[in-house]
Please model this.
Amino acid sequence: MEREMALAVDRSQLKDIHDVVIDTRKPCRERIKDFISQIGSPYCYLDNGVVVEIGYADTQVSLQDRLVSYISGMDQDAGNLR
Model:
């Protein structure tokens, strides 16, 4: 299903995240507004010409749990997955 979504995206309508400029002197709320106004949809954008689509699965596992699991599987010396 995810591949179907990528095929339906009109790349010409997407913004490249590298074109987004954030003024870090502004308060957090205003930086978020600026980001959204520049990128359009934060769930679908370009990164160096590659379409990035972000979605969420209906699961009880949190992002924090996933990150801890991912990092636990890394070789701490080399920074590579075991």
